[in-house]
Amino acid sequence: MEVDDGSNHSWADLPEELLEMIRKRLDSRIDVYRFRAVCTSWRSSISLFYKQSPRVPLKLPKPIRAHAYLSQVTICRVELVDDSEDSSSSSSMAWLTKVEESTYGDIQLLVPVSNRQLRTDSPGMMPKMLNLLRFRLVEITKACSLKLASGSPHGINKVVLLPSSTNRNTNEYGVLAIFHEGKLGSGGSMRRNGSL
Q: Residues in domain F-box (predicted)?
């Protein structure tokens, strides 16, 4: 058994095989951004042009009858990285944001409650440039956002996609939605291709 001699080890010194295992498990562009923010050698080890999160198409039943898709979003706490010994100041400089990937692969920062795009020109808001070597994204949870092909989803507040079994490779899902002032509706069984 090897004993730790107390010396500090750098993240940049991780073996390439371990880095490759980590890279294979990055599920979204935000995960890639977080990976690249660890250190400069990790930043250069993976391209920004990463696979886009898959959109799950849906055909909504009556009374809505619209084509829509579910888009994965990540709720994050954005905080300033403070390398000093007293890191209590970094906790006071934090923002809660919803991170969503646009259809063009760009990252959008949204206000979690209203889904409005975060404005960078207001005092006390996010900086115009978010250098992930200076800021840390702490993932709180992942969620789905419902988007209609024809515009915004009127009357639908929240959507949850539930696997119909405990098997991770399942092809069947159930859809629950909160709509029209708090009513709960279900979409029954949905196949991965999006038909309800």
A: 11-46
Inside any domain, residue 137: yes
pTM over the 0.85 mark? no
Residue 4, number of CB atoms within 10 A of its CB: 6
Torsion sign over Cα 32, 37, 41, 43: positive
Positive/negative CA dihedral, 45, 48, 51, 57: positive
Q: So what's the pLDDT on residue 195?
A: 41
> Which residues constitute the domain of residue 38?
13-51
SS3 label, residue 144:
strand
> CA geometry: angle at 64 spanning 61 and 67, to 5°?
75
- Specify whether 37 is located in the same domain as 123: no
Give the model's pLDDT for residue 48: 67
* pLDDT at residue 81, rounded to an integer: 76
